[in-house]
Each structure stands twice: as C-alpha cells, then as structure tokens.
Amino acid sequence: MAKILAVDDSASMRGMVAFTLRGAGHDVTEAENGQLAVDSAKGSKYDLVLADVNMPVMDGITMVKELRAMPEYKGVPILMLTTESHTDRKMEGKAAGATGWLVKPFDPEQLLATVKRVLG
Amino acid sequence: MSTVSLSQFHQTFFEESREGLDAMEAALLALDEGGDTELVHTIFRAAHSIKGGSATFGFPDMAAFTHEAESLLDELRDGRRAIDASIIELLLRSVDCLRGMFERAQSGAPLADAQSEQLRQELAASIGRHAPVTQAAKAAAAPAVDAWRIRFRPHAGMLMGGNDPVRMLRELSELGALNVQADADKLPPLAALDPSESHLGWIIELRGKASKAVIAGVFDWVEDECDLSIEAIEEPVAASPVAEAAAVAPVASVAPTAARATRESASESSSVRVGIDKIDGLIDLVGELVITQSMLDTFREGFDSNRIEALQAGLAQLARHTRSLQESVMGIRMLPIASVFNRFPRMVRDLSQKLGKQVKLDLVGEQTELDKTVLEKIGDPLVHLVRNAIDHGLETPDRRRAAGKGDVGTLRLEASHRGGSIVVEISDDGAGLNRDAIVNKALQRGLIASGDALSDEEVAELIFQPGFSTAAQTTDLSGRGVGMDVVRRNVVDLGGSVAIRSTQGKGSVFTITLPLTLAIIDGLTAMVGAEHYIVPLGSIVESVQLRKEQLRTVTGGGELFHFRDAWLPVIRLQDAFHCGGTRADIERGLVVVVEGEGSRVGLFVDELIGQQQAVVKSLEAHYRRVQGVSGATILADGSVALIVDIAGLVRMQGRRKAA
Questions:
Q1: CATH class of B147-232
Q2: Does residue B637 carry a pLDDT above 50?
Q3: Is the pTM above the cut of 0.85?
Q4: Which residues of B touch A (CB under 8 A)?
Q5: Which residues of B528-561 are buried (b: 16+ CB within 10 A; e: fewer)?
Q6: pLDDT tens, B44-80?
Q7: Taking CA atoms, what residue in B is nearest to A110?
Q8: Which domains does chain A have, with CATH numbers?
Q9: Of B16, B163, B222, the CB nearest to A10
C-alpha cells in the first residue's frame, strides 16, 4: 500500500488510474494539472507520482522539474503517462527528472505491473 | 487481480470528450479570426486527451482517427507548418466527424464509416504520408538466447531520478537465474560518500530464455543514465530436457474490450457535474436545518403558552432554511447557458459564408445559469432564431452599404436573469421585419381580412401564426418566419414566451423569457367541487366574474363569453375532468382567462384560493399520461392537486368542437 498521486486533466483517464490503483489497495490522491499536483505534493509526501504530459496550467514536464526541486521529492519515482512514442518527449521528461514512463494506451493490468515494478 | 471493467468510465470519457470537441471547435474558430498560438496548444491537448482515452477505453477506430489529427496539430504546434484556412477547415470537419463517432459509440454502432476513413486519409495526406491501414504492425520477436552477460553501471545521479538498481536486478531475476557480481572499484571512502549517488556497478550473468529486447526493456528508463552492455554468452548448449516456448513474451497488446459485446443499453444516463462550492453550501444548509430541528425538538415536552413566541421564531427559521435549501438544491441542476451558446460561432460562420454575408457574433452573459432540463430544450428554438436572423434579418454587404450601414452585420445573443426568469435576447442590426411583405403574405393566406388597421406589434405577431409561411419557402423577400409558430410552441411548452421588437431598416430583437426551472411553477390554486387544481400563473390573462349577458351558447353545446371585444370559448373544468363542480350557475363561479397554443379560453371554476409555488411531480411516472393535465403537486394538507395543462385543454376543446 503506497501513497500515490495521479495527475491528469482527463477525468476519465484519472478515474481509471485511481480506481485501478485503489482496487490494488493503494491510497490515491488525484490532481487535475501539474500546478495542483505540486501544491498537493507540498502538503504531503507521496511514494509515487503518475502524471500525464499534456495538461493545461502546468504540463507534466514542468511539474517534474518543480517536484525535483523540492528536497523531499529527490529520488521519489515519477512516471509520465505518454502516448507520444517520440523519443524526444520521453527524453525531455527524463531530462526534467522523471523516473520513467508508461505508454498509453495501457490497461489496468499493465498499470499495476508498472507500479509494482517501481514500488518493489 | 481481476480485470477492471473500463465501461464504468465510458460516460465520463464521452462527456469530457464532448467538452473537448467543443473547446477544439471554439479554438479553431478563434484561430480563424487570427488568434494566437496558445489556441493551437488548447486544440492539441483536447485531441491528445481524446486519443489517449479512446485507445484506453477500447475505441481503436477513434484513436486511429485522432492520431492523424494529433500529428497534424503537432506540426502546427512546433511551427513546422503554417496555419491556413484550409487546415482549419479540415480540422473543423474532423471535429464534426469525431462528434459522429461519439454518437455511434454511445449507441454501440461501429465507429468508423466510409466518411471517417476518407477524412482520416485526408488528414494523413496533409502531413505528407499515407495512413497506415492497420494499426501497429507487430515486430517479429527476436530469437531467444539462453545466456546473457549484462554490464550495468549507473551514472552518479541515477538515484535522484527515482530509479533504483535493486528494481532492475529484481526484474532481471524474474527472467531467469542470475549470477551477480558487484563492482565496488569506484566506491569512495565513507567520509566522502554521498549516499544519494550511485557508486556501484554490476556484472550480471542471466541464464534463461529471454530476448535482448526484453532485457533492454528492464533498463528502458535509464538508458542515458547508465553504461550498459548486453551480450550473449557463447557456450556449449546443454540440451534442455524440455524445450520451452519463449519464457517471456513481450506484453500482449491490449485486447479489444468486450465492451462492444456486453454493452449495457447505451441510454443517455445523464449526469451533472457540480462545483464543490455548491456541495459545500448544501452541507452547511443541512447543518443549519439540523440545528433548527433540534431547537424545535425542545418544544415536544412540557410546552406552555408563554413559549409560543419562541416556537414561532423557530418555525420562521425553519421556513427560511427550507427555502434556502430548496434554492441551493435547484442550483445543483443549474448550468451556464454557454453550452448552448457555444454551438453558434461555428453555425454563424458556416451559414454566413454560404449566404455571402458578413456577420459578427456577440455572445453576452454566457455564464447565466438555468436548469438543465430547460437548457436541453432551448437549443432548437435558439438555433431557429439565429438562422432566421442571418437568413432574413441581416443583409448582404452591398445591401448594407446601400442602406448606409457597415458591411458587417452584428448578431447578438444575450442571456440574463430577470426576477425568477431567464431572458435570452437575439438581436440583429439587419433589415428588420418587412411590414408590407408580412401583410401581403397574411392576406394571401387568409390570416387577415385587411392590413390597414394593424399596429406594428400586431403585424409582428402574424409571423407566429401557424401556416404563415412554409419551410419550403426561401424567397429573400420573405418577411421572416420560417416555422416561427414551432419556435413559439416549443418555448410556450417550457412555460416561457417569445416577443418581438422590430424597426424597419434598423433590425429586430427577439426576446425569449423562460422559467428558471421546470421543477417548480408559480400557480393559482382553484377549487372545482372538492378538488384543487393548479393553473400555471404564466398563462393567466385575468380572472373575471361573468354576467349572464356576456354568455352565448352555440349549437353543439359550446359556450362563448364576451371578453375585450372577442368571443372566447368557456371550458368548464368540472366537465373536462368529470369532477362534479358545485356551481352550475356561471354567475356564481369565476372564469380564469388563460392563453395557450396561441389562443385564449376561459376556465370556469368554483372559486380561487390563492397563489402558491407548486413542486411539479410527473403524473406519467407515477400513474399515466392524462389529457389536459401536465403534472401534479402535493398541497400543504398532504392532498394531491393536478396541474392544468392549458395547451392540452385548448386542444381538447378543439376536438370537442370538431366532434
């Protein structure tokens, strides 16, 4: 059971991610964009952050930079949910400090497998 | 863990995608007007979300389609391609096409059709490539080898990115037997050791049938944060007793969901998204109510007359809270009219282009809220009026110039609250109603005997007459009014009204007044025999006490009474509803003059009790449809009163006359 922050501007995607992870016993907090995620991360310590790349207000890549600038988020796994198989976007996420990525579309099983990978 | 059913998220996905498409359309139109590149980002994000969602929730056709649109948008976003009118046009058509796909998705029909396929090819062609006809050709799996040597040395900062070497070692151990040697050569003395950096490297021998791609996949996220080599170990192959199939296959691609097969009826289960502040307000009110209730509870024991004032104060408080609670609960179903207004920019653009007119659309008061039920029904009448304004009201640029106006006509939609109603005004600065044309047409159709004595208001009213014009008519001189009777009927069915102000040469203003909600009506309570009836206040002209000489009986048993220079039919509610009124003598009861379906009638009742707000309950849901009755309400004493449907009664009366 881990504390996970799910960040996506799409309510249906966010709902699917949160529902799947809660079903596996995790404690999930949802955020609609990068800015809200950063605000939420300031208030509590998450074990894992899952974030979409394209979001209004603050995109996922900027969000990773902001989180990595916070001492308590150094080393916390942050995964980008991306449909963009362009390596440059992945690399941009990596350069910003993301741990890895999960390529959309994924199904609940793939999501759980990946989360398990990261949380050990 | 069992498979999570994704169908529960479909409704949310459909709703947000619809909003996304609306946002795309609005942004495309704004781009067309010369907006900035931030708009492209908005459009891209919407397309991107739809693509991701449709792939996730099992709509591959939609994902394939949006993929092409997204690629095109990506090029626009990166500035690799200039935005021009033809691209905007193509993307607008894509929005339409996607809307069609969503409609089919909700009814469970196949999403792609010849048209969407053609448009997808067109999108693909626009970015200079051919659309793949099938999604994702699977790469042939590389042959698996029995043994691998992996040299892995993370760069110092790898841990900071949240990647732990232990995780990778664990994953490798799932692929086969490991023999791991740590390489601590670069480990600094303890005093200089920074625990947040990686200092170790590993040489790992993996024995198991795994392909190089699968092993590399383990290090996928850290490929530029470590030194990595993966090589096959050449060794004499020990004959394995059982040749297994490849131990690890790449993750199977997502099977199409069974949603299509086991689709629940795709009925429009409608939902409303409610702002959290509204919910908070409700919770506060309920809290207040509970406090009031416990205060009133103290009166149950040992009540004496000197506490009567306190009781009255308590009851007054209860009434206040109940009213506030009622308003707040109604507010939950209140949505901004923006969702209806949003369809107009596109419509106005397309229609004015088609007719060779230049129109500037002003939308005012988009945040005005009204009940969802009203909102859903007001769209069509508004569309009708907007069409009319562009079609018949606004002139072509040369005509405008001839009339001394600027080339560009203005069409303005304004929503606002006035008292307990919402008012939507559709105004244009076009030619206004053409009095002569209207009078001539009314004469032709035999609606009037002569047009001389008609005031401007009366002429304007003519366009609402059924049969005033036929939809097939498209003469540019038509004085407006394609099916305006239908518009009025739709609005009146909602308990509203339509009015016109027009000045020839200057333009017209159509004003639609609507109730804020259909759930509560203001009514007048009337008694007929022992029964209560509610007459909707909005339809009442006035109540009169008749004298015998105002009454005429016509052949066939109908009665007419004289009211303001006209003879109106009397409907005796006791006969219409067979409820045994006590006053057969018309002079002793009251006649309520009401208007419905564009004609006036008098309802004969025993007496009027007074005005009250009635919470409308559906009769159909609890019993069945009853002619002349639009619903029911529960009175303070717990008894049921029927709400009179004026339009229905007028129709009943017409049939009786015809019979």
A1: alpha beta
A2: yes
A3: no
A4: 1, 3-4, 6, 8-10, 12-13, 16, 42, 44-45, 48-49, 51-53, 55-57, 63, 159-164, 166-167, 170-171, 196, 220-222, 224-225, 251, 254
A5: bbebbbbbbebbbeebeebeeebbeeeeeeebbb
A6: 888 988 988 888 888 888 888 988 888 888 888 877 7
A7: B251
A8: 3-115 (3.40.50.2300)
A9: B16
